[in-house]
């Protein structure tokens, strides 16, 4: 293995990192990791949650100081102490958590740091034009003068990418850029990556969606437990090879299933728990009807902007509908605020964990207990033991990689933060759980476990409303699939009708059989 | 213009609206309210606060706070008074320099030693105040009248008070910095998301350093005007100035958490508070009721609340004001 890596490094490489160590409070996150990227190459970097991918990137860009190891970039030893210097040396990075400034306009978020000037002062007109032009490359049309926070996660992600591309860099690093994009947008991104490659720019691409790697990547490096375990040409390794290298053990693919949702027992499905009729709020949600039964997983499919998250927000009382009615557990349900929904027995695991979910400076345990607090402390005291037990159970069940319940959540890897958030709502033991992109950013191994857990909970009577941009997850996981298109619920499929083709065509054209009558 | 857009505009310029209404009220009710004398004296007096509030505005936009501005102004006034016999310019430079020194220490404490702004500037508030009292030997320090130092605070230029000119120039520069320089945009970015700003490759620490330095310098300048206007360095003045400045900034719609702010609205906030004080004085002068200083405080406090609440109500329906260029 050593000699193989050494060989890779000798080739005409743009970047080579060797023997990189990084410890946090004594615990190694990177232990002798190495990584090499050739010129004009698209290089995939993969590994389980917490394997050290993001840390490796942050060490490279000077956000963290490495404890040991050597970095050579563009033929010269590379020593930077801040992301600013890395940027100036030609490394442009899109970090895993979208790291932009929500209050500022799209233009500023794209141009900050390399502003256009005229007579020494900022030239807003040119900057707006530049931002528009960059976004055009991604087919994004947006008013670049508006603050970033008014746009959805996907647009924000595109802005982050546009920003990185705008610096004419030699190396562009993308840490999970596709996790919040849908297939159309991923295709656009891949086109841009191919263009970059043609211009001789190298790209590092981190993703948990293994299929997409084959579309653009030339080579792949696999990390496990802070080490680099394998580097290979993309066309020499198959998916099973990738996964077994990631997990460190041989695996066989489950027959015919892409997800861990095995067939469900229809008999366990109970009465309708939540039904919503003709919900509307604005252009984004115009007319949505659906229902969820207890013990059932109902899926929402649709393209980005179809109104899935927005509908969930209405159900959970974050926004108030302009029209439409909801019935929950046999009673009219009109939540004014999320605590109404929580009191009624709902949980909502949001897609945007950074701004809506996680409290980074609190511990894993505190984050998990947050929603449960009011319940646990009803008598005025919080039962420490019970709390501990719940937290430890979910750390185990979800496979959260952390040093213990007291570790701060900000110190966890992105995927593990997602798991903590999921644990929070599962710990609530709700009657209806809304999951918005539950497995976003979660590695293949843990994904299966989470899907299995969702299924077990549904078998025990939990009603689940699952939103996912991964079609397989909805089709295989859901007992019924509701398709939303441009704010309208256009189709409903039972498990056996929900084929990929049928759902896809409803998502795109909405020309499916008229929405079925509300189930009995 | 759509309705929500209009409401959000009203939200961001609510303070200007309130200011206009107050001026109209005063004009209708009191005889000499819009007289030349009243206008110039209001401007002359409030220019000190305007300078302090400008510095505070920048600090708050980065998500920080500077509690030391009041004592820094007092220190600046004492130092300027002591130096004034050497000449008007030297007095001016000494006062501003003293402010810059305090600002420099604040900047080092916050950006190098990573001490929370609240704590760091609170400590400096005490230290600066103590230093002012020491230098002044616990009494006010008379300025030199021969050197022409008093012109800074008392004379007019083109018929307009010099302190007001200084404040206007400072605000114009401040406005240009926020809206048309990368440092200025960086100030807002740091306040909006410091970590992201760092990852985006902006010099977050340098930006924060600069705002504390500037705030100190502006407070020192306010101190120079104070000494010059009243003919003496005032070691015990400046108490509560920081609160006035914070109030003016907040009324102007700048978020205390940082990331959103406007220089122009801060100026409007200063004028609003200053003119309110003026109106209360006129009301007392009418002799119908007599409001003690305490009652004036209560009324100003309530008025402030009303404006802030209105603003919050209006702007939450639209969206945050993000630019004023
Ligand atoms: N600031 C920190 N303090 C302490 N531990 C940290 C810190 N940052 C990362 N770690 C730890 O280092 C390990 C590697 O984390 P990293 O974020 O690099 O994982 P990753 O491969 O990017 O995972 P993911 O796919 O979930 O994004 C994790 O165990 C994480 O808990
Ligand atoms: Mg990561």
TrEMBL record, chain A:
Gene3D superfamilies given in the database record: P-loop containing nucleotide triphosphate hydrolases (3.40.50.300)
Gene Ontology cellular component annotations, sorted alphabetically: plasma membrane
One Pfam family this sequence matches: ABC_tran
One term of GO molecular function: ATP hydrolysis activity
Bilayer topology: Peripheral membrane protein
Classification via CDD domains: ABC_Carb_Monos_I, ABC_Carb_Monos_II
Entry keyword set: ATP-binding, Cell membrane, Membrane, Nucleotide-binding, Repeat, Sugar transport, Translocase, Transport
Annotated SMART domains: AAA
Chain ranges of the ABC transporter domain: 15-250, 267-511
Subcellular location: Cell membrane
Entry's family note: Belongs to the ABC transporter superfamily.
Protein name listed in UniProt: Ribose transport system ATP-binding protein
UniProt organism field: Phyllobacterium trifolii
From TrEMBL, chain B:
A molecular function (GO) term: transmembrane transporter activity
Membrane-protein topology: Multi-pass membrane protein
GO cellular component: plasma membrane
Alphabetical UniProt keywords: Cell membrane, Membrane, Transmembrane, Transmembrane helix
Localisation: Cell membrane
InterPro entries referenced in this protein's UniProt entry, alphabetically: ABC_transp_permease (IPR001851)
Coiled coil: none
Presence of the UniProt keyword Transcription in the record: no
The keyword Transmembrane helix is assigned to this record: yes
Transmembrane segment boundaries: 7-28, 48-75, 87-109, 115-136, 157-178, 209-231, 243-276, 288-310
Superkingdom as given in the UniProt entry: Bacteria
Chief location category: membrane
Protein's UniProt name: Ribose transport system permease protein
């Amino acid at each position: 293995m050593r000699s193989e890596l050494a060989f890779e490094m000798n080739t005409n490489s743009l970047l080579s990192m060797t023997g990189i160590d990084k410890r946090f409070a004594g615990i190694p996150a990177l232990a002798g990791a190495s990584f090499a990227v050739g010129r004009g190459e698209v290089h995939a970097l993969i590994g389980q949650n917490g394997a050290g991918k993001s840390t490796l990137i942050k060490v490279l860009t000077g956000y963290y100081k490495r404890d040991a190891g050597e970095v050579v970039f563009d033929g010269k030893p590379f020593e930077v102490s801040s992301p600013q210097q890395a940027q100036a040396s030609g490394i442009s990075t899109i970090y895993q958590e979208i790291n932009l400034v929500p209050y500022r306009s799209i233009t500023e978020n794209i141009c900050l740091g390399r502003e256009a000037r005229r007579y020494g002062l900022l030239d807003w007109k040119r900057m707006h034009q530049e931002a528009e032009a960059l976004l055009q490359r991604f087919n994004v049309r947006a008013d670049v003068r508006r603050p970033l926070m008014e746009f959805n996660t996907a647009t924000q992600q595109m802005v982050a990418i546009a920003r990185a591309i705008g610096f004419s860099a030699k190396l562009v690093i993308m840490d999970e850029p596709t996790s919040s994009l849908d297939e159309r947008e991923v295709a656009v991104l891949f086109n841009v990556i191919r263009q970059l490659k043609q211009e001789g720019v190298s790209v590092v691409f981190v993703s948990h969606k293994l299929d997409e790697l084959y579309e653009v990547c030339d080579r792949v490096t696999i990390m496990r437990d802070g080490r680099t375990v394998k580097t290979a040409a993309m066309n020499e390794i198959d998916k099973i090879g990738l996964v077994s290298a990631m997990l460190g053990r041989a695996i066989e693919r489950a027959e015919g299933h892409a997800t861990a949702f095995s067939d469900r027992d229809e008999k366990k499905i109970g009465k309708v728990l939540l039904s919503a009729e003709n919900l509307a709020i604005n252009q984004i949600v115009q007319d949505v009807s659906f229902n969820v039964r207890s013990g059932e997983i109902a899926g929402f499919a649709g393209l980005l902007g179809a109104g899935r998250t927005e509908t969930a927000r209405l159900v959970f009382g974050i926004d108030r509908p302009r029209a439409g009615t909801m019935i929950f557990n046999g009673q009219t349900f009109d939540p004014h605020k999320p605590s109404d929904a929580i009191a009624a027995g709902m949980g909502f695991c949001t897609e945007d964990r950074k701004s809506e979910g996680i409290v980074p400076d609190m511990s894993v345990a505190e984050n998990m207990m947050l929603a449960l607090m009011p319940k646990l402390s009803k008598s005025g005291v919080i039962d420490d033991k019970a709390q501990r037990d719940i937290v430890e159970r979910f750390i185990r069940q979800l496979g959260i990689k952390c040093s213990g319940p007291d570790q701060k959540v900000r110190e966890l890897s992105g995927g593990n933060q997602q798991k903590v958030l999921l644990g929070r709502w599962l710990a609530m033991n709700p009657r209806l759980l809304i999951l918005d992109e539950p497995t976003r950013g979660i590695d293949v191994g843990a994904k299966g476990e989470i899907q299995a857990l969702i299924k077990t909970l549904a078998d025990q009577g939990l009603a689940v409303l699952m939103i996912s941009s991964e079609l397989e997850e909805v089709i295989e996981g859901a007992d019924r699939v509701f398709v939303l298109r441009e704010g309208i619920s256009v189709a409903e499929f039972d498990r056996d009708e929900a084929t990929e083709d049928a759902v896809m065509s409803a998502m795109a054209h909405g020309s499916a059989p008229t929405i079925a009558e509300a189930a009995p | 213009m759509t309705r929500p857009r209009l409401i959000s505009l009203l939200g961001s310029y609510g303070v200007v609206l309130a200011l206009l209404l107050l001026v109209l009220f005063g004009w209708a009710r009191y005889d000499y309210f819009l007289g030349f004398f009243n206008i110039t004296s209001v401007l002359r007096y409030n220019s000190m606060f305007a300078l302090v509030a400008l510095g505070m505005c920048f600090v708050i936009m980065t998500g920080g706070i500077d509690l030391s501005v009041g004592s820094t102004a007092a220190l600046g006034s004492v130092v300027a008074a002591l130096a004034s016999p050497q000449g008007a310019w030297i007095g001016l430079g000494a006062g501003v320099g003293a402010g810059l020194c305090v600002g420099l220490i604040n900047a080092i404490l916050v950006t190098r030693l990573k001490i929370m702004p609240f704590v760091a500037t609170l400590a400096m508030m005490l230290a600066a105040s103590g230093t002012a009292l020491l230098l002044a030997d616990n009494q006010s320090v008379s300025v030199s009248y021969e050197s022409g130092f008093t012109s800074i605070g008392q004379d007019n230029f083109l018929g307009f008070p010099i302190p007001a000119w200084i404040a206007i120039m400072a605000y114009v520069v401040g406005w240009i910095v926020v809206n048309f320089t990368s440092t200025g945009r960086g100030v807002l970015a740091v306040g909006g998301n410091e970590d992201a700003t760092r990852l985006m490759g902006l010099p977050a620490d340098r930006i924060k350093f600069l705002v504390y330095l500037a705030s100190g310098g502006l407070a020192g300048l306010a101190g120079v005007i104070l000494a010059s206007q009243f003919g003496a360095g005032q070691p015990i003045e400046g108490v509560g100035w920081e609160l006035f400045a914070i109030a003016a900034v907040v009324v102007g719609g700048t978020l205390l958490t940082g990331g959103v702010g406007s220089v122009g609205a801060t100026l409007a906030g200063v004028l609003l508070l200053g003119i309110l004080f003026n109106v209360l004085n006129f009301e007392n002068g009418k002799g119908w009721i007599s409001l003690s200083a305490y009652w004036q405080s209560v009324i100003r406090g309530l008025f402030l609340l009303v404006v802030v609440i209105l603003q919050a109500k209006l702007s939450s329906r639209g969206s945050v004001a993000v630019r004023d260029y």
